[in-house]
Hints:
Blueprint: E1 6-9, E2 19-22, E3 32-38, H1 46-55, E4 63-68, E5 72-78, H2 82-86, E6 90-91, E7 94-95, E8 99-101, E9 113-119, H3 124-132, H4 136-144, E10 148-150, E11 153-154, E12 167-170, E13 174-184, E14 190-197
Antiparallel strand pairs: 1-2, 3-5, 3-8, 4-5, 6-7, 9-14, 10-11, 10-12, 12-13, 13-14
Keywords: RNA-binding
InterPro entries: Nucleotide-bd_a/b_plait_sf, RqcP2_RBD, S4_RNA-bd, S4_RNA-bd_sf
Organism: Paracholeplasma vituli
Amino acid sequence: MFKGFHIYESDSNHEYARVYVTEEPKEVDFKIITLKSTYVDPLISHRDVLGALMHLGLERDTFGDIHITEKDIYIQVVAELKQIFTDLHQIKQDFIYFEEVSGIPTDSKQKNEAITLFLDSLRIDNLVSKAFNIHREDVKTMIDQEKVKINYFPVQKYTVLVKPYDIISVRGFGRIILTDDMGTSKSQKIRIKCELLR
């Protein structure tokens, strides 16, 4: 509760959630459904799905996190807009057909790319620059525009240090999950393992 108001989140474990604020405690129906489609093209990424949805003219706040496994795409959407999402039938050259399901399976693992990075420091601007091959000055601009988040909160400074198991979200590029700090290399570079969700 905050200043006499009750705040409800549809899902506190995801980056995108619906929020309901009320003066009275109540059961909240967020009117969210889960849609699922299979896909074939192994190169389809989070970025491709997001681009296809935005091309339909959808506002970003009408759907939640995009969850991609090795063969399925899951997305939680505002129920009254279901028809718009189910009218999407192509992403890149792949045929897509979204249908409503009961939810995202708890054991489903997102498709990711395991990488090892060698860094001068664990500063957020340095990590994002190396992981996505973005010029460091461009990363600083993105931070100023609140397009970079750590654990779902916008980064305020370029000098913030990341640590193992942090989730770094970069709008338009994907996410980085730090999985292991492997110490330093012979050249005194910091060596870390990451999972990239593009």
